[in-house]
Amino acid sequence: MPSQIYNKLLMTGQYISAEQASAFDDFTINQIGVPSAVLMEKAALAVYDRLLKSPAFNLKKVLVIAGSGNNGGDGIAVARLLYLRGIPVTIWLLGQQDKASVQTQLQLKIVKNYGLPIENQIDEENFSKYTCLVDAIFGVGLSREIEGNYAQAVNRINASTAAVMAVDIPSGLHADDGKVLGTSVQADETVTMSYNKMAMATEQGRQLAGLVTVADIGIYDPNCLPAN
Ligand SMILES: NC(=O)C1=CN([C@@H]2O[C@H](COP(=O)(O)OP(=O)(O)OC[C@H]3O[C@@H](n4cnc5c(N)ncnc54)[C@H](O)[C@@H]3O)[C@@H](O)[C@H]2O)[C@H](O)CC1
Ligand SMILES: [K+]
């Protein structure tokens, strides 16, 4: 694909809203036909690659904190990739499994078949032993204040000395305006899917996201596709 078309597709320097992210996702799956699991795998590979490459992360003992939506699904797939590389990794599943999204249930089935450790609770002593935390609690689907055990998990992540990688967007940041909904993860790095999010164009969003990597996972703005 000639580079000027590809550059237009990537819309480098653009920021998109949660609604656009979902619309582009939906278009790619339902109009173009790329299976959702393929997109999730490419999202997970982008986070996995950055975790391996970035000097910010000590992968001696990794904890993936996963919600029940597709952001959690991305995180669970990251845990699987790390596990198959021989990296010690545990999944702390916050959401209720039976309420998990279809894609997240698939990722849970896969990691169970591989025998990855999945916990519903992590005590303080064990939590403090992790050297790297992956925030896969909420992504662009965050729509209200974070409360209860989700808020507790966010506060424990922020109190940890371990480096934090946020999947797509720090959990607690609203994708459109960078507002903190109750509490938000403070990330060292964020790998965001397809295009940067409007939240990261705000001072607060930039600060909470840390170093942002925009991952091209094959989801594009339909208006930027080459005319056939
Ligand atoms: N668009 C892309 O390029 C891709 C995005 N992926 C990942 O999918 C998430 C978005 O997933 P979604 O299922 O829509 O929502 P979340 O996982 O962000 O949220 C989960 C779920 O939680 C509920 N919820 C919202 N606010 C709260 C709250 N305060 N407390 C409790 N529960 C809450 C709500 O029902 C949400 O549905 C995106 O960020 C990417 O990580 C794809 O996997 C790959 C392509
Ligand atoms: K997140």
UniProtKB/TrEMBL annotation:
It catalyses: (6R)-NADHX = (6S)-NADHX; (6R)-NADPHX = (6S)-NADPHX. (6S)-NADPHX binds at N70, N71, G72, G73, D74, G139, V140, G141, L142, S143, R144, E145, Y150, D168. Gene3D superfamilies: YjeF N-terminal domain (3.40.50.10260). K(+) binds at N71, D135, S171. It comes from the Bacteria. It holds the Pfam family YjeF_N. Residues 21-225 form the YjeF N-terminal domain. One of its GO terms (molecular function) is NAD(P)HX epimerase activity. InterPro entries: YjeF_N_dom, YjeF_N_dom_sf, YJEFN_prot_NAXE-like. Its cofactor is K(+). The keyword Nucleotide-binding applies. Belongs to the NnrE/AIBP family. Catalyzes the epimerization of the S- and R-forms of NAD(P)HX, a damaged form of NAD(P)H that is a result of enzymatic or heat-dependent hydration. This is a prerequisite for the S-specific NAD(P)H-hydrate dehydratase to allow the repair of both epimers of NAD(P)HX. This is NAD(P)H-hydrate epimerase. The gene is nnrE.
